[in-house]
Specification:
Number of domains: 3
CATH superfamily of the largest domain: Methylthiotransferase, N-terminal domain
Order of helices and strands: EHEEHEHHEHEEEHEHEEHEHEHEHHEHH
Helix content: 25-40%
Number of helices: 14
Length: 374
């Protein structure tokens, strides 16, 4: 998915119904995109089995975790300020408190956090959350604990996430991890690893459980949901080496979407985020087939300049984007589109900017989409 960031939920301390037998307190804050918030639910589930209940009171926490984002400098600066706050509380009120950093900043700044600045006890990358109990044991032994190894297999498909700050209606369901696209403005392939997809059986099991609990809407979540491809496990880039049987029985995103909508016809289904190079017509066909799939696609064009798109290493042109939207209009006339645009990209000229925002561009990219589609 694109790193779409909801400013309204940044830094919320997560809280769930406590388990009576749990005696330790976990304070966990999340910053960044929806994937980080989904990951925090996985972490809370893992630690619940280790005796932790969540709390929204920082001063009473035994363990403080912050799930971090590296896509923008503002997010990193905010996290650094929060780490200063945690350490002040640890120094003045709760010296036994342990502090850990999770997520993308953990992988990128592990040495600074642990060795140079010494502001955390534990650093855990996005693929190492199952190792948190072992890392906590190392912390208790007085050691700095770190695991930022990127996995070729981990999808956390065997963990039922604890729903944090949930309204009981909407839930995020992760279907992929990592990304292979290597857009020049994005750190995801380096902080979250290469792309792999989750077993569709575990996805359907999680969604069925959510339905039983009364949830009404789910969002299928991934760095790039359209490139979902399950062929038995492993990296997507290794699909070319799969057996003929694996290739014949592989499940694409459109097939998964069809399975989900069919399994739970009374639940609304959304997905985020899409990439124009991977979005295919069969997804639109499935959306048209099922009334419970919401008529909305988040389809970032990023720029109206083909030169800038090439600089971004985006694998689509403006013409290809418009052709894709034309096909979407044809199959789903009432479908809405949202998108991301980057302006001021390195080397962008005024002509490039006008291709995106100028009077000639309105019919080509921005205004054209919103008027014709919305």
């Amino acid at each position: 998915m694109e790193k779409t960031i909801d400013e309204n939920v940044q830094g919320n301390a997560l809280d769930v119904t406590p388990k009576n037998n749990n005696t330790k307190k976990l304070f966990i804050e999340s910053y960044g995109c929806a994937m980080n918030f989904s990951d925090s639910e996985v972490v809370a589930s893992i630690l619940s089995k280790q005796g932790y209940n969540t709390t929204q009171i920082l001063e009473e926490a035994d363990l403080v975790l912050v799930n971090t984002c590296s896509i923008r400098d503002k997010a990193e600066q905010t996290v650094r300020k929060r780490l200063e706050k945690y350490n002040a509380v640890k120094r003045d009120h709760n010296p036994k408190m342990k502090v850990g950093v999770l997520g993308c900043m953990a992988e990128r700044l592990k040495e600074k956090f642990l060795d140079q600045e010494k502001i955390v006890d534990m650093v855990v990358g996005p693929d190492a959350y199952k190792d948190i109990p072992n890392l906590l044991a190392e912390v208790e032994d007085g050691k700095d604990a770190v695991n930022v190894i990127l996995s070729k297999e981990e999808t956390y498909g065997d963990i039922s996430p604890v729903r944090l700050n949930s309204n009981g209606i909407n839930a995020l369901v992760s279907i992929t991890r990592g990304c292979d696209n290597m857009c020049t403005f994005c750190v995801v392939p380096f902080t979250r690893g290469r792309e792999r997809s989750r077993d569709p059986r575990s996805i359907l099991e999680e969604i069925n459980e959510l339905s039983v609990k009364g949830y009404k809407e789910i969002t299928l979540l991934g760095q790039n949901v359209d490139s979902y491809l399950w062929y038995g496990g492993g990296l997507k880039k290794e699909f070319k080496n799969a057996t003929e049987m694996q290739k014949a029985t592989a499940i694409s995103f459109s097939q998964l979407l069809d399975q989900v909508a069919t399994a739970q016809p009374h639940m609304r289904v959304r997905f985020s985020t899409s990439n124009p190079q991977d979005m295919t017509q069969d997804v639109f066909v499935v959306m048209a087939k099922h009334k419970n799939i919401c008529n909305h696609v988040h389809l970032p064009v990023q720029s109206g300049s083909d030169r800038i798109l090439k600089e971004m290493n985006r694998q689509h042109t403006v013409a290809q984007y418009i052709t894709l939207v034309d096909k979407l209009k044809e199959i789903l006339p009432d479908c809405s589109i949202s998108q991301d645009l980057i302006t001021g990209f390195p080397s962008e000229t005024e002509a490039d900017h006008q291709d995106t925002s100028g009077p000639n561009a309105t019919s080509k990219v921005c205004f054209w989409i919103h008027v014709q589609i919305l």
